[in-house]
Design a protein that fits this description.
By secondary structure, the chain is an alpha+beta fold. It is built from three helices and six strands, in the order H-E-E-H-E-E-H-E-E. The protein is elongated and about 85 Å long. 13% of the residues are buried. The mean pLDDT is 84.
Length: 117
């Protein structure tokens, strides 16, 4: 009896995929301190805004790393602007996860408290 050495279409497809995957290395790290996680990575700091109606207060990671004072425009999608001045000392505190609260400028008859961390 003669042996048939031909592959059908399905066997060929499976063999091709296995050959392709044979050259791929997949590295999976487990939990438990094997490296930094997203929450460990430096990121922008978004402030919580009292009586908010569309304002957004964000200190970028670049600003946090620079450690210099910043003036934030927190208008966001609101119809009016406010600004918040954050000193260099406060920037360092925010970077070090210390809670900092600031009062915005008064615009349109009101101001907001912006709290970081």
């Amino acid at each position: 009896m003669e042996e048939n050495n031909t592959l059908d279409r399905r066997e060929f497809t499976v063999a091709s995929i296995m050959a392709l995957l044979g050259g791929i290395t997949i590295t999976i790290t487990g939990c438990g301190g094997d490296g930094p996680t997203t929450s460990d990575m430096p990121q922008d700091e978004t402030g919580a805004i009292s009586a908010n109606h569309g304002h957004v207060a964000v200190i970028t990671i670049a600003q946090l790393n620079a450690g210099a004072s910043v003036r934030l425009n927190i208008q966001g999608t609101s119809s009016h602007p406010h600004t918040v001045d954050v000193s260099a000392v406060e920037i360092v505190d925010i970077r070090n996860q210390i809670r900092v609260s600031k009062t915005s400028t008064t615009e349109d008859g009101h101001s907001h408290t912006v709290t970081f961390n």
